[in-house]
Structure prediction request, 737 residues.
Amino acid sequence: MILNLKLLEYSLSSLWRRKEKNLALVSVYALVIATLGSVLLLTHALKTEALMTLTAAPEIVVQRTLGGRHELIPIAYARTISEFPGVGRVTPRVWGYYYDSLVKANLTLIGIEGYHEQLELLEGRFPQAPDECVIGAGVADAFGPQIGDFLVLEDSSKRRSEFRVSGIFRSASNLLTNDLVVVQEAALREFFAMPAELATDLTVQVYNSREVGTIAKKISYLLPDSRPITRDELLHTYDSLFNWRSGMMLAVFVSALMAFLILAWDRATGISAEERREIGILKALGWETSHVLGAKLREALLLSLTAFMAGLLLAWWHVFVLGAPLLMPLLKGWSVLFPEFDLPPVVDLYQLAVLGCVTIIPYLACTLIPAWKAASSDPDDVMRG
Amino acid sequence: MTRSVLCLSVLLAGATLLLSLLLPAQQSFHQDSARWQNKRDLVAALAITDLSLSSEARYTRHVSQADLFSAFQDFPASFEHFPTGSMIPPRPAGYSGRVLFESAQRVRP
Amino acid sequence: MTLAIDHISSRPLIRVDEVSKIYHQGKPAEVRALQNISLEIFAGEVVALSGPSGSGKSTLLSLIGCMSRPTQGTIYLQERRVSRLPEAFLARIRRETYGFVFQQYHLLRDVSVLDNLLFPLYPAAMPMKTMRERALVLLETFSLTDKEKTKVRRLSGGEQQRVALARALMADPPIIIADEPTAHLDAELTAELLTMLTELHAEGRTIIIATHDPVVHQSSLISRRVALRHGQLADAENSRGGQ
Prediction:
């Protein structure tokens, strides 16, 4: 116990003696951890958001393809599908995109039909007239309308359509509703000039979730030009999309990590003449190799644990307090700068443990191996000058 | 000894702070059912299928609804959408189309 | 002290038996530093090793001080074959039996005088408080009390010499090994060092000094003089020693 504390004491004074160098090292180290940690925290939060919310998505979405492209689907297909046993409601959906060349924003226009219950995440109400709309907070932010204002869109024949904003989705739902414009289905059909017998796609309700796969197969068998997308596939998409092993970001930051390790290796193998001399003197004074290594291990652990914790705290602050301003542009792309997302503060401890292992252990190795080399030679070099 | 005690307590304080952030986060999000239920209601009402992360291309806005085979979904000369296009690949699963060749030497009736 | 030093013992404290040391053996840079040296040192002796630079003085001191192992031959410390002991035992012997004063002092220049004194005792099972108390006593003995917190790089040569000697005494070792301790000292400081060594000898310590300084060599403190030439003993008669 005494020996442990004394070696720690020695390590501290040794770290303190080279404080400028060590401070710089801790900063770089913490920054690497913070970047990698931010990526992990952000992707895990997004993944959780997707997997927790999209479980309420339709069991099957049926698209139609023609010539290898998406095509509007005949509403008559709905009747065919709804005759399958086990299938509940089949709903034709009308939705599409609208590109605003001024703000360079791509909006997603969704048509809804019938009465909808008031939602917690909607400020105002769903459109109850053909000239009303509900917009996402991102749209509101980019174009500046309030509830009661008018959203003016130009349709394909350059005709202007005005929609009164009857509601705005609360920003807590940004991850789902950011770029949405919701209007009544009939109004959207008119705006898109979509024929009455066609729809964008069909959603299929399946009573027994175990039959979803079978029904999807039946649909593509009976309607060869259709492409069913099941909810499991959809969830799988998001599960693998932000999987921490995939993704360009991680690849980029892994190279940052490599660069750091090369730096650490360089620093450590270029273990300064001063440090080598110090190790030699300590050995000559009666320190065993294990004492020297123990002290160096404590030094490296103190340094890397401090950096790891500082880096993780920094990552937490960056992702969950600031909303990942440095990473979001990569995810959002060039389209429009939308407001911050309400990320769920969830972490995967396993990922963080892995992060700790892949950063701390190589650093320890980088520092200890050269120290061990220096410490295991005879102290007699010191004697001979 | 005071120095090492001080240092250990600083490390301990940091670890406590970190754990007090991480552990509750680990536990509470499953319990925060109202938050998720509200969002699920929204998803169900609008039949939402995708997160609204990036709206620059169909295959990044509606990841799960886009397809792999339409080369130029947005416009004929569209660029590769960097950086999102490199991070969000077209949906990897759920296609059943395949190429089938039939032999020309088959005996015809 | 682990070794009870017995003044009237007829057995040598240190016995160097047919020892050779070759550096970089089998390589072009091979150096035969010592060849077939035999030497006995008895408790309470003050032995001066002399000889020109490169004659093997430092190598012999490092072998005696358990800092390296002989290529051939054996070294006994109180009839224990130390030259074949594992590294950890050698470190322990260095720590508890020997106090070293190096030619270049080998103090850590960016560290305070007090901390420099503490280094030899870190691996020992002694609380920091006791270590510090002992260091303060030694600092007083060597009139360095006011330099306690000064960094070594700010000290004069004579002060550094005293710090080096104080550090050698931290573990209260029975044997002092000094390599050219006067190399960087003027006549006055040399005399001061000899006085200090005389006191240490009076306390019952065995002292081994490598030097080519005639002042040290002719000092009345020295009880035996051993000369080295080209890695061999120049005068075989003196190798047996004894009172």
Observations:
- The beta strands of chain C are 14-23, 31-41, 46-50, 72-77, 80-81, 98-101, 175-179, 206-210, 224-229, 232-233.
- The two ends of chain C are 24 Å apart (CA to CA).
